[in-house]
UniProtKB/TrEMBL annotation:
InterPro entries linked: DGC-Regulatory_Protein, GGDEF_dom, HNOB_dom_associated_sf, Nucleotide_cyclase, Rev_trsase/Diguanyl_cyclase
Species annotation: Rhodosalinus halophilus
The name this protein goes by in its record: GGDEF domain-containing protein
Annotated Pfam families: GGDEF
CDD domains reported in the protein's UniProt record: GGDEF
Domain GGDEF: 187-321
Length: 323
């Protein structure tokens, strides 16, 4: 029975008909698509394909000796696509049909040669497999994007939980975490309580919108006048806490407080009106304690703050540890 190329082209488009000498007499349309620049008919099959298993096939006689056995091949020219194949001899020693498939290389082949469903037999499940792979890839990509959004939302929620919404500073919850970490590390740090003087008068005379504006301006300058390693938190209406990490010595902490107080005394304008406030502060130093305790240090800094207010406001005081 003669091989009918038209039938083979439809049933197994990735094939080659070989004559008895091992030359390609006909190439299926998909095989032609893999090598559009080559004229395959008339070429020796071993010039086009390299047989990688079984090994040591030297020529057409060796190939025919392995008829109906599974063959592993690859194209000799780049891209060196891997193929699976089986050789079926034609009756009367008139040659053979070499039927090929991509096997697990199908994804690379589709990418390298822009293959479509028309390049496969109608009964070939390869395209269905590709659709499943694409669907899985799409689902995985959608899952990845969803996870990124969820992570972003989680980070935003965590950030919001630790942030004062009006000023953008850390809140009391965040402050507690910062202090706990510093104590755990055994770091040297200072805790400064700062309270605005005459802030109630601004709210009463100019309104709460003006008061909010003043708080935002104070928050901005507190951040400007401290280092990235320091922490500025709003813990109440007009109450702030500054944690200075590795602040140096006592006089350096006092210098920071004096600079903050001077900046806060600068007038703030809102709707063309001037708001004037000042600030009182008190500090506690971790090295004044045998075992620093955040709650105790905050309480001692608060005592220093009220000592500043009692002494006339707009000043800074250290409070000795309350033993």
């Amino acid at each position: 029975m003669e091989a009918c190329p038209d039938v083979l082209d439809a049933l197994c488009p990735l094939h080659a008909i070989l004559d008895r000498r091992g030359c390609i007499a006909h190439a299926g349309p998909t095989l032609v698509k893999l090598r559009p620049e080559d004229t395959l008919p008339g070429r020796d099959a071993f010039e086009v394909f390299e047989v990688t298993r079984p090994r040591a096939l030297a020529g057409i006689d060796d190939l025919f000796a392995h008829a109906r056995m599974r063959l592993h091949l690859r194209l000799r020219a780049a891209p060196r696509t891997k193929l699976k194949g089986v050789l079926v001899p034609l009756p009367g020693e008139r040659g053979a049909i070499l039927n090929l498939s991509f096997g697990i290389s199908i994804l690379d082949a589709v990418r390298d040669y822009a293959l479509t469903n028309t390049d496969f037999a109608a009964t070939d499940l390869a395209m269905e497999m590709l659709y499943l792979v694409e669907a899985k890839s799409a689902a995985m990509e959608a899952s990845r994007k969803l996870n990124l959004r969820l992570q972003g939302a989680m980070i935003a929620a965590e950030e919001q939980a630790f942030t004062d919404t009006l000023t953008g500073l850390k809140n009391r919850r965040a402050l507690d975490h910062v202090l706990a970490r510093l104590v755990e590390r055994g770091a040297r740090f200072a805790v400064m309580q700062l309270d605005l003087d005459y802030f109630k008068a601004v709210n009463d005379s100019m309104g709460h919108a003006a008061g909010d504006h003043v708080l935002q301006q104070v928050a901005r300058l507190l951040v400007e006048e401290t280092r990235a390693a320091d922490t500025v938190a709003r813990v109440g209406g007009d109450e702030f806490v500054i944690v200075l990490g590795e602040p140096g010595e006592r006089d350096q902490v006092a210098h920071v407080a004096e600079r903050l107080i001077r900046r806060i005394e600068e007038p703030v304008f809102f709707d063309g009106r001037q708001a004037r406030i000042s600030a009182s502060a008190g500090s506690a130093l971790s090295w004044d304690y045998a075992r620093p305790d955040p709650a105790r240090m905050l309480a001692d800094a608060d005592r220093g703050l009220y000592a500043s207010k009692a002494a006339g406001r707009a000043r800074h005081s250290f409070a000795a540890p309350d033993g």
